[in-house]
Design goal:
alpha+beta, 3 helices
C-alpha cells in the first residue's frame, strides 16, 4: 500500500494513505489489520482524510515494512 509519513515520533507514526478518502468498510478493515499486527499497541484510521495513526513497541522500520506489505493482506 502506498502511503506518506506525515508525522513520526518514537512509538507513534501518522501516515496518509494514497487515496482521497476511504469508505467506512475500508477504514474498519485497515484498522482491524493494523491493531492485530505484532508490535502494534493501538491504531486509529480516519476515513475522511485517509490517515492512520499507529502506536507501536517494535522498531520503526518493522512498522513501515508491515504497512508496505499490507496491500497483500487486504
Amino acid at each position: 500500500m502506498k502511503f506518506i509519513i506525515k508525522h513520526d515520533v518514537p512509538g507513534r507514526i501518522r501516515v496518509h494513505m494514497d487515496a482521497s478518502g476511504m469508505t467506512f468498510t475500508q477504514a474498519d478493515t485497515l484498522q482491524y489489520y493494523l491493531k492485530n499486527l505484532q508490535g502494534v499497541t493501538n491504531a486509529k484510521v480516519y476515513e475522511r482524510t485517509a490517515d492512520a495513526v499507529v502506536e507501536y513497541r517494535c522498531s520503526r522500520k518493522a512498522v513501515i515494512e508491515l504497512l508496505l506489505s499490507s496491500d497483500t493482506a487486504m
